[in-house]
Amino acid sequence: MTFNLQEECQTLQQDVSQYQIPNAHDVGSMDQASIVDLLDGAIEATAQSSDAITDETVFDVYRSLLKGVDELQPAAMSKLFDSITSGLQAEVDAAQRTLDSPDVDLTTLTEHKRPLEHYSFLMHWFVLAADKVGQAHGPASPAPKAKRGGKGTSKKKAAGVTDIGAAWAWENHIPTTLALISKVLRLKTHRIWTTSAERDAFINCVTRPAYYITESETYMKSNDIRLGVYKVICLAVKHNGHGFGAQISIMQCLQYFEHLSEPMAEALTVLAKEFDHSQLAEEILREIAGKQFNGQDTKGSRSFSRFLIRFAELSPRIVLKQISLLLCHLDSESYPMRMALVEIIGMLIREIAHSDEGDQESREKKINNLFELLTERFLDLSSYVRAKVINTLSRLCDLPVKFPKQRLQSTELTIGALEDKASSVRRYAIALLTKLILTHPYGLMHGGLLRIEEWEDRYKTASAELEQVETKEMERPAVEKDGEGEGEGSDEDDEDDDDEADHSDDTETVTGSPSNATPKATPARTPRVRSRARSKSVMTPGVSESGDEMSVDDGSLDTMEDVMDDEVPDFDDAEMADPETHAKSVRSSRSRNSSATAASTVTTPARRSAVPKPPGNTKSSVKKEKKAKKKNKARKSDALDLSALTNEQAALAALESNHILHLKLRKRYYAEGLNFIRQIEGAMEILGQLLGSKNKPEVLEAMEFFRVAHEYQFANAEIGIKKMLHLIWSKDNNSTNEDGNELKGIRSRLIECYRSLYFDPLPDMEPKQQVNRIAKNMIQLTYDATLAELTSLEELIRAMMDDGQIHIDVVTKLWQVYSSDKPLPRNQRRGAIIILGMLAVARRHIVTERVDILLKVGLGPLGKADLTLARYTCIALQRLNGSVKNVKGSLLDKSVRLPMDNPIFRKLQDAIEHPCRTRDWFGMAEQAINTIYLLGEHPDQLCNELIKNLTRRAFGSPPQAFFKQDTMDEDIVEEHRSAAASAASLDSQASQVFHGDAGDAFNLSQLTFIVGHVAIKHIVYLEFVEKEWKRQKEEREKEEKEKDTRKSTGPGRQKPGSKEKEGEELDQVAGNAEDEVGERIAAVRETELLYGPESLLALFGPMIVHICGSPHKFKNQLLRTTAALSFSKFLCVSSQFCDQHHRLLFKILETSTDPNIRSNIVIALGDVAVSFSNIFDENSDELYKGLSDHDIIVKKNTLMVLTHLILNGMIKVKGQLGEMAKCLEDTETRIADLAKLFFTELSTKDNAIYNNLPDVISHLSVGEHAVDEDTFQSTMKYIFSFIEKEKQAENIVEKLCQRFRLADDPRQWRDISFCLSLLPFKSERSMKKLIEGLPFYQDKLHEETVFNRFNDILVKARSNKSANKPDSELKEFETILTEHKEQGEEDQALEKRVESKKAAAKKRATRRNARRKTLDDE
User: Fold this and answer.
1) Is the pTM of this model over 0.90?
2) Which residues contact 1275 (CB under 8 A, 6 or more apart)?
3) Distance between CA atoms of 1077 and 1026, rounded to whole angstroms?
4) Second label for 658, Cα 20 to 30 Å away, from 676, 910, 1024, 1106?
5) What CA–CA distance (Å, rounded) separates 82 from 118?
């Protein structure tokens, strides 16, 4: 029987069990000894001669053993493997010797054909069998781990199979097998197999085991196996014509085995580079280019995309040849292929940028084309592709070549991507902008900082210089211009010589310098011109690199140095100014790309030394010319050497032309830098919004961006840094993003950013300088800070102080600044005490040890002159009480109370009573009263005295037109004097004296303010007294209980359970006692504070009511403001007072023209609602009117108060939610955001939005409160997004359908139908409700918009419908809708015709009557 290798291999692949062996041995029925004897016989035969394998009986033994391989023991498997490999090895060696013989005929060669085919077939079968055995018994692995593989086998063969898997590991023999196959493939097979079919069959049989092995992901993780496979494929393709077969096999591997994507790319790279055979790779790329990928099949496309990316990374030049064909996949339906092409384009740009092949122009053209393809993908439909584009551009930023033109375009597109819908795209866009700043190419001349004012000045200077030089050039005489033409050729010759000498230095290109803007018209002279321009900028003081760098530093630090000279004693320039700026530039240069830095630092000195000095060259050439002319011709000594003069003019003209070119390049360099800076500055607003994103990685990237932008001195970065401060309240921990990288918490990252910007020590600075710098930074953080920013800053400082990140020397320096005797700007001294107060929140001893300084400075002459300083000093004094928060229900109190004879209270009283005419007094007085009530044992005593003294001042002295402040602190320099004078003139309006006034309005305003604030603080003090009484009672009861316990433990024993009973009785007594204390305190608050015969506050209640109720008498604006504020506080004290006078407060809210008064009242109403909700509920509608106020502050405060009251259940919503919904579309972003936050929180309450939805729709659709249709639709779209429960949706469908019945206005029809279309219609019950409501809206379907809305509902219902359910009901409903629409249109047309006929008849009747009347008159 003849052996056909191709047929045998095909049969083997189909089904091994059906493979027919002529002399078969039933291995399954044989015992192990018989199997070993059978194998030994075959081994002995082949050992004697490798040709014995062609003996059919021997060959069938091997085939029988391979067919029953499951029955073989490990020792038999090893013998079988060794026999086949050794036989094949011997046959290969014999064939090689025959091929190497000089005189060999074809017959001798063909004798090796059959043994080689038999051995290769057996090797093929053995690999397949061994691989299947390994798969059947678990993963192929070393012996100890293979024991688990036996669990999946049949019971009767379990023992033997387990031994195979345990003792014989096929994976260990795979490298040897692949090495043997490689040796086979080194034979000159074309001489042994004369026909291509036979040869191909043999090569396929030999290489098939390698492809089998690759199918196992476990095997391909081994480096030896992977390299062996690569070698087999490469040898087969290179020397044995296996190219087409390899192409088919590799494509199949990519299609079905995702893990082979990168290995196959590596194999093709080895084939191309080590075997110099790239044709196969090119063929595969062409085949992939012609392949279509379905958008739904992501597995296959992902495998091919990974292959392309890996191959482009390893062999970019081969991919570059075929890129024109591969680009068709940029329009593929499969987004993984589009992503792969985007990444490949980036790799090709990198390759071309590094390459020196071809001319510069062709490389630039290729790069431009690739960049265009890359930037087009910013508009891709898939967010994954858009994110990949941004990632690719980010990697390109690290290249030494900076692509200035493309960078500007990429920056613009990236800024647009900041508003992308996908959070991943936005995150990568922020990261790319950060990378663009870090690697910007505009740092070669001036150090890298990007302050826009400095760059604008440089651009103006360069433009002015260029204009001046060009004007001179235009005004030059014609003779000089002729001279230029004559000397031009010789100058070019000199330049050519210089170019040759300095070629190695000048050919280097520094990216981002003015040389990048060099015109393409003179490519040969470009390096020379660049080097001259660079050297001129280095050598000239006004344009020098070092000079410009110093001018930048000096210009940016002038003001700060002046300030610090005045601000902090002993702060010199070296300590506070230069080191900081120098360190910032050092830090920014470190963070930039190292290659760009190397280019800027290495090439400049080389170019500087390589450039000859033109003036010296000109003089030497003139001397040589004179000597030559003296030798040739004898002339008179006084004769003019015209030729030398002409040459000198030509050289000077060449220098001037180079100077003009240098100026043009500088101007263009500055223009590109300004363009980049303006682009980044314009994106700051959007980036600031992204700081509030719900996506954590976005927020972290935005924080990093603002940190980097601040270091590079972008103007608007400070806004982002301040906005970033509010993230300190974030409560999150470290997490992991989708890339597997660990993400820090937002709070910890914020602390890191602030520490690196303001607190980290800088290198090469003295410790004293470090302390000065940190103290200065902390103080500057308070400049122009809002209350919200100061609150967030306090939390940040507290956290850092708790963590020990602020050194005690910095605290000492802050005290030095605060207590300095030298005149300092007010902001600095204020900033010092603000920061000290913040630090004291974490460490109380910071202020407890220096109370005397606080009293001397903040409440002394300096504080009286600067009331803001006094106010913050009072806040710092409040830290003496600690920052321990009271636990609700706990009687434990850790607060500190001082005796009333303490100097603190005398100073506070002096500060309040000190004559003053500025509005700052009110803020200071508020904090002073707070401090008194927080620290004093009996604050009411001091406040009684205060109120009496202010009353005497207000009513005891005659009115004065203007009260001049008699003390001025030396701290106020001249500019502050003028500011204080202007403020005094403004505040003098508060003390206007009207005819018939009985007192000073400002003094009365002070009195009313103090009275109101004392009243509200006294309520807090009463709560403290109540807690203290309860605590004392509890302690007494505890002592009594302990005494009783000691008595009961004496003679006699307690009865079982009597102890528990006694405890319950004591708890009950204690509860009754607490109730008694609470009732007593409530009675004091209710009846004694404002109505008691001995109460001082009771005297002022009627006065404040009279002032608020008589605006025509009390016209002073400040007085009315303070009176309204105090009146609001009085309302919170007693329910009786509130019940009597609360209507007056609503009247003031309605009639007042001062937005400050209205804003204060709105906030006060919130407190009143908390105190006495039953009184407020009757008039809650009045508060909603504030949402329609024209003043933004009033509207915002109203919205915040209502949000607090509604969400905390303090007031009930009675249909006014529609007014809140209006705010969703407010033009002011802050108000709209607050409204969205309110509805988001409200949706978490049980059915709150669902219950009020009908009222909201009615409120916004009809009546005086109705809004336009566009606003209604956008508002409803947001609110309906919270209707998620299907049951709620069904009920809303029913209610909305019933609304059609009572609606007559087409606008209402459209609104109702729009609301219906917003519902999901996920269940059949919703559609059933809609169909049942057909009688209510069938006569409205003739309205086109209404009918379209119902069609939208049908589309939504069909998309949510199950595929296995019939669509007949929906089709029937659609038909009914169409019929009613047509019927309605006919009715409308008939009605119009009737109306027109009626109108015509009426017109005719009128004419007839008119004619009759005319005839009657005649």
Assistant:
1) no
2) 1221, 1222, 1224, 1225, 1260, 1267
3) 7
4) 676
5) 15
In the three-class reduction of DSSP (H, G, I as helix; E, B as strand; rest coil), residue 715 is classed as: coil
Report the candidate in 627, 618, 625, 623 with the shortest Cα–Cα distance to residue 648: 618
Q: Within 13 Å of residue 736, how many CA atoms lie on the same side as its CB?
A: 4
pLDDT at 1275: 93
Q: How far apart (Å, rounded) are the C-alpha atoms in residues 1199 and 72?
A: 84
Amino acid making up residue 87? G
Phi then psi for residue 525, to 5 deg, are -95, 0
Q: Which two tokens mark 809?
A: 């020397």
Instruction: For the chain, give the number of residues.
Output: 1418
How far out from the chain centre does Cα 1326 lie? 41
Residue environment code for 384-407, b if the CB has 16+ CB neighbours within 10 A, otherwise e: bbbbbbbbbbbebbebbbbbbebb
| Buried/exposed code over 416-444 (b: 16+ C-beta within 10 A; e: otherwise) | ebbebeebbbbbbbbbbbbbbbbbbbbbb
Burial state string for 953-978 with b = 16 or more CB within 10 A and e = fewer than 16: bbeeeeeeeebeeeeebebbeeebee
For the CA atoms of 787, 788, 793, 795, the dihedral, rounded to the nearest 10 degrees, stands at 110
Q: How far is CA 343 from CA 314, 376, 522, in A?
A: 13, 14, 34
CB 1296 within 8 A of CB 1316: yes
DSSP string across 448-512: S---HHHHHHHHHHHHHHHHHHHHHHHHS-HHHHHHHHHHHHHHHHHHHHHHHHTHHHHT---TT
Instruction: State both tokens at 108.
Output: 């001798």
Q: Based on the number of CB atoms within 10 Å of its own CB, is 1156 exposed (0-12), middle (13-18) or buried (19 or more)?
A: middle
3 state DSSP class of 742: strand
Gap between the Cα atoms of 698 and 727, Å rounded: 13
Tokens of 233: 């494929």
- pLDDT the model gives residue 1077: 76
- Hunting for tokens 């409205």 — which residue is that? 1340
Strand partners, 898: 936
Q: Which residue has the tokens 């043997």?
A: 180
CA angle 1198, 1202, 1203 (to 5 degrees): 115
3-state SS class at 735: strand
As a whole number of angstroms, the distance between CA 652 and CA 640 comes to: 19
Q: How far apart are CA 919 and CA 867, in angstroms?
A: 9
Dihedral angle over CA of 212, 218, 219, 222, nearest 10: 160
- As a whole number, the mean pLDDT across the chain is 78
pLDDT in tens, 672-716: 999 999 999 999 999 999 998 888 899 999 999 999 999 999 999
DSSP string, 20-51: --TT---GGGS-HHHHHHHHHHHHHHHHH-GG
Question: What are the structure tokens assigned to 764, written together?
Answer: 């090469």
Of the chain, the end-to-end C-alpha distance in Å amounts to 137
Residue with tokens 């120098």: 582
Extract the tokens encoding 310.
Answer: 């890996």
Instruction: State how far the Cα of 707 lies from the Cα of 716, in Å rounded to an integer.
Output: 12
How far from 563 is each of 542, 572, 576, 762, 1203, CA to CA, in Å? 28, 11, 10, 21, 44
Which of 413, 469, 389, 802 is CA-nearest to residue 659? 469
How distant is the alpha carbon of residue 1190 from its chain centre?
Answer: 35
Question: What residues in the chain have per-residue pLDDT under 50?
Answer: 136-166, 478-640, 887, 959-970, 972-995, 1052-1055, 1059, 1066, 1069
Q: Are 967 and 861 in contact (CB under 8 A)?
A: yes
CB 68 within 8 A of CB 27: yes
Half-sphere exposure of 1395 toward its Cβ, with a 13 Å CA cutoff?
Answer: 6
SS3 for 750? helix
Alpha helices in 896-1000 (DSSP H): 903-913, 920-935, 939-956, 974-987
